[in-house]
Amino acid sequence: MPHRADTHLSKADPVMRRLIRAHGPFALKPEERCPPFKSLVRAVAHQQLNGKAANTILGRFVALFPGRRFPRPADLARVTDAQLRGAGFSRAKVAAIRDIAAQTLAGVVPSSRRIAAMGDEEIVARLVEVRGVGRWTVEMLLIFKLGRPDVLPADDFGVRNGFRIAYGLREMPRKDRLLEHGERWRPFRSAAAWYLWRAADQG
Question: What positions carry a catalytic annotation?
Answer without folding.
Answer: 156
